[in-house]
Amino acid sequence: MKAFAIDGYKSKDGLVARELFVPEPGDKDVLVEIHAASVNPLDAKLAEGAFKAFLPYKMPLILGHDLAGVVVRVGAGARRFAVGDEVYGRVADGRIGTFAEFIAVNEDDLAPKPKTLTMTEAAAVPLVALTAWQALVERAGLKCGQKVLIQAGSGGVGTIAIQLAKHLGAVVATTTGTANVDLVKGLGADIIVDYRKDDFAKILRDCDVVFDTQGGKTLDKSVNVLKPGGQIIGIAGPPDPRFAEQAGLAWPLKLVFRLLSGGIRRKAKRHGGSYGFLFMRASGDQLRQITALVDAGSIRPVIDRVFPFAATREALDYVATGRAKGKVVVAVK
């Protein structure tokens, strides 16, 4: 099969096309013929070695976390799917590789593809929707009437998070650039801060939840908009002790993450709130709940560009620029 892989972190050759064997599905796996795969900033960061301390991979490494496709083989112990089923999902860490024509996936990481979406549209959903779900539903417990700030509302995660927060009945504030104001308004944002003109930290107040996708100075300023008891959930900021514990990391890494996140955790605490880091995980069960929202019309993917499979490297380079609105998808089949 054809696949796109890296031969090493920060490789000078970058993502290259390779001919590899079609993987054999394990007992609880299904073999999926991939029709479309989306590209995430996570793929670019992984290629640079950003997560090698706690996500060790062997080379060559096929990149890609999201897929939509058709089941072509079923492992002996797999029961959820049959040959011919249309599925989609975010592959679990340690088993990524959706920039390929086939992949073996644990059946628990997949869900039936939404009936209202094409393969291309479906591939744009899993990672960003699961990230938004795990931040706003699972971690924050966002409730009707609460106020949430979603940073970078026009990004892949932001476009889904706005829609999910509105479905939950929250008052949604978001930041975006001038060119994307109409986009985020159309997705349901109630309060829009154009970061090219205004400072969100001087405009917003009393947020129950801040969903930070930016890190750095944006994360530091986010504490200023929290109400007492509010929480910041970050996916770009420093990992915290809770994450290190859940990931089962060795004590040196636990200490490093405690130190790295100490500043923002103390700052949030001084403002009467809290900070927590989220590294999303694969979950077919959560994705089934998201599928229901998609088919009900509550959530729709926003797609910036679709690249042919042969241009997967160019798609990754485009995502790495940070200019994409919504998601970038590779049409594999």
Automatic annotation (TrEMBL):
Keywords: Oxidoreductase
InterPro entries per record: ADH-like_N (IPR013154), ER (IPR020843), GroES-like_sf (IPR011032), NAD(P)-bd_dom_sf (IPR036291), Quin_OxRdtase/zeta-crystal_CS (IPR002364), YIM1/Zinc_Alcohol_DH_Fams (IPR050700)
Top-rank taxon: Bacteria
Organism lineage string: Bacteria, Pseudomonadati, Pseudomonadota, Alphaproteobacteria, Hyphomicrobiales
A single GO molecular function term of this UniProt record: oxidoreductase activity
Gene3D superfamilies: Medium-chain alcohol dehydrogenases, catalytic domain, NAD(P)-binding Rossmann-like Domain
Domain (Enoyl reductase (ER)) ranges: 10-330
Pfam families in the record: ADH_N (PF08240), ADH_zinc_N_2 (PF13602)
Keyword tRNA processing: no
Protein name from the UniProt record: NADPH:quinone oxidoreductase
Keyword Oxidoreductase: yes
